[in-house]
Amino acid sequence: MKVLVTGANGYLGQGIVKHLLDLGIHVVAADFSIDHVDDRADKKACDLFSISSDPYHYFGEPDVLLHLAWRDGFVHYSDAHINDLPKHYNFIKSFSESDVKQIAVMGSMHEIGFFEGCIKEDTECNPTTPYGISKNALRELTAMFCKQKNKKFQWMRGYYIVGNSKYGSSIFSKITAAEIEGKKEFPFTLGQNQFDFIDYEDFCEQVARATVQDEVLGVINICSGHPEKLADRVERFIVENNYKIKLKYGAFPDRPYDSKAVWGDNSKIQEIMCGK
User: Fold this and answer.
1) % residues pLDDT > 90 (the chain)
2) Which of 73, 122, 188, 192 registers the highest number of CB atoms within 10 A of its CB?
3) What are phi and psi of 268, to 5 degrees?
């Protein structure tokens, strides 16, 4: 099996590519730069949206497209989400018109919008940020393309990733960067909201395992399946990594569009992880 991974040099891409390679998959890894990509991959440094030839043939006729590429994923009000949407639309459309067998795209629980409780595959989406709105639009468009062209469709709906890389944009990466810089305190909210946290390696493995099978399709929650208070998870993260930094509670207000408790239904990903 040959899998094209776009955004392969990003925070998520690096780990997902490694897990795909560990599964024995031929990975074509594409990004602007590929300096952090596993050397076992077939690397392509390029601008996805400026390829003059047919992308499917340019990338060696992959069996599966795993589209991770996305700018400003943690900057929810960035104009890039709206400005880039037509580019993602055209890129995925070109693959839907090719001989690719399966199209998988990275989504986000932010496409749901404000919601309390367990997010299921068919939970109604009412996104409230440019990030969520654009991701949700791309989900619907990709599903449309796959239905029209008889392609297998997967939407990997990601939740809250815990990792200690300083290169990410999550709160955990920012705490790691602050620790490395020698800072004593990290400005924080009260941390009482509950979210579905999943460790980085588990996240990457779930995406990889979901991508290389074609029986469980549609929206797949990439998650732990249970909620945990933000403060509890961050404090545990600090202990797990033997950091000395302390949280400065109440320095920031909670974001108004975050719910008090939200988590994903993990039944589909568990079917994949336990059955394959």
Assistant:
1) 90
2) 73
3) -70, -45
